[in-house]
Design brief:
single chain; 64 residues; alpha+beta; 1 helix; 48% helix
Length: 64
């Protein structure tokens, strides 16, 4: 989802119960449900655009 720019991942660091410092990417700037919903929206828009292009090419084919 980060690659599709649906979420932004921030570098973080934290200290665990044993005093060990850990680095990682474990904070998201938007809830995962929102990112999934936006991803589905983008997929549906892409499918609709494909369908419209196919319908347009079918109409031009029938008009010949």
């Amino acid at each position: 989802m980060e690659g599709k720019q649906l979420i932004a991942v921030e570098s973080t660091s934290y200290i665990d119960n044993h005093g060990m410092k850990w680095n990682g990417n474990n904070q998201y700037t938007m809830p995962i449900q929102v990112a999934m919903y936006r991803c589905y929206q983008q997929q549906m828009l892409h499918l609709e655009e494909q369908r419209n292009r196919q319908a347009g090419s079918f109409r031009s084919f029938r008009g010949r």
